[in-house]
Amino acid sequence: MQDEKPPASADAAAWARWAGDASRRRRWMQALERWSQCIVQFGARPYWLAQRAHALRHLDRLDEAEALFEALALDRPANHVGLEGLAQIAADRGAHEQALALLDKCLATYADGPIRSWNRQRAQALLNLGRIDEAQAVALPLLEDPDANVDDKLLYVRVARQASIGRPDREARRRELARLVSGHLLPELPGIGLQLLSTVASVAETREALRAAERKAFTEDEIEGCMMVLPRVMPRASCGASWERLYVRAREIDAPELELRLLLALERHGEFVARFDALQEALRPAPRFALLRGLRNRLARPRREVFAEEKVFGIGLSRTGTTSLSDALEILGFDSAHWVNPLTYQLLSDTDFFLFGAATDCCVSPEFEKLHYQYPNARFVLTRRPLESWLASFARHHEKHSGTGVLEGLRALFDGPDNPFMFHHAALEYGLYLNAPSLAEAWRQFEARVRHFFADKPGKLLELDVFAGQGWNELCGFLGRPVPSKAFPRLNAAPP
């Protein structure tokens, strides 16, 4: 166990090492407390203030972190940490143009700053903006530098993977990237390397790497990497042995949050409740503590009470503002799951609809009739957008993640056994889109089906168009909740 008490000496360096240990272990609440104690004990040093702000970032307390970075940029203009921190806050918020402008300012102002790191962040911002050629032009020199590190290689693979989409030599490029990931990233960065491998290698290749990674997973990051990839390449019914091995390893390395999440994956719910009660003091600094506590409380109640809850289900198709809705429901106090269970990374299913207070995206969309009868007090939100806008967004999204955004290409992808999330994912795609004569017809059929079902159920359905500027007034009026002071979250290009 790491020393939880501050150093007995008045040595500032020893205190900084003590606080830095919490940051390195990603115990962000603990890191925040420790850096705060350092500042009280020895004064507000720029690096310590920046580390405190980074802890706030990782705890999603972005407004507080931004205020610290702004003060640093204003009070210590000769030090780059304030301006760089503001760029990272902008990226955290999805404001990639702003992040890019701030990074360009860093490069123009601080010749002795961490140039490689800033260029790496610039390439990531360009990638997020869809400016792939520019991102590649920034990333390639980083890779070719003799001092290239694992972060440079990681970035290059991400950029090159996007650059290969739609290219006639895509398969050859995929094999080249798979070799790069297997040869360089997996040995140096097993968790993230495994996740990247699953995006460029076949399911069979990724399974083989996953089995090797499970045997060597001795850190929290390595276990997390295995957890993220496992549901993508193994049928749900076949995951149990792997979950069990990872659970045993989490207990061996004293990782209580991972231990509880793996009990959820194993659906050992009674054991989850008992272990949460035993571990909750150790868990309290964990970023997901509140979410785990909410799930614990739900599992400890009689099931009939949970089925009678006023849950919220976002049943709009993907690319209609479902991410914005999920974040809005979180702000309103619902523990919301979007697309996958955020604790186990499995596609949302009946168990998750029970565990969470809200759920959104295409795993929920085809289930609305059943969910209405299972949860008679639930409300349903149909997020929507104009058809032409949805078709363009759907195509871009699937080109990025699946390599094709047209109906015929998606059918070919999901017809074979070698696809992400196995049968469950294919069943979702066919149920929503692939059996229709066109994507436009799939969209029309789905909206007609929803409206027909809820036509005689007043007060149960809200149609919400966040792309037309709808937000808190409509959602809070529907749910009977006060309008929050925070702005309505508008993600994935939804306008203000």
Give a short account of the largest sheet: 5 strands, parallel
Q: Identify the overall geometry.
A: globular
Q: What is the C-level CATH assignment of the domain at 305-479? A: Alpha Beta
CATH evolutionary superfamily of the domain at 305-479: P-loop containing nucleotide triphosphate hydrolases
Percent of residues in β-strands: under 5%
Q: What class do helices, strands and sheet pairing give?
A: mainly alpha
Average pLDDT level: 91
Instruction: Please list the strands of the largest sheet in the order they lie side by side.
Output: 2-3-1-4-5
The DSSP helix count reads 26
What is the terminal-to-terminal distance?
47 Å
User: Over the alpha carbons, how many angstroms does the gyration radius reach?
Assistant: 24 Å
Overall helicity: 55-70%
- Multimeric organization: single chain
Number of β-strand runs: 5
Low-confidence segments, ≥5 residues, pLDDT <50? none
CATH level 3 topology of the domain at 305-479: Rossmann fold
Supply the CATH architecture of the domain at 305-479. 3-Layer(aba) Sandwich
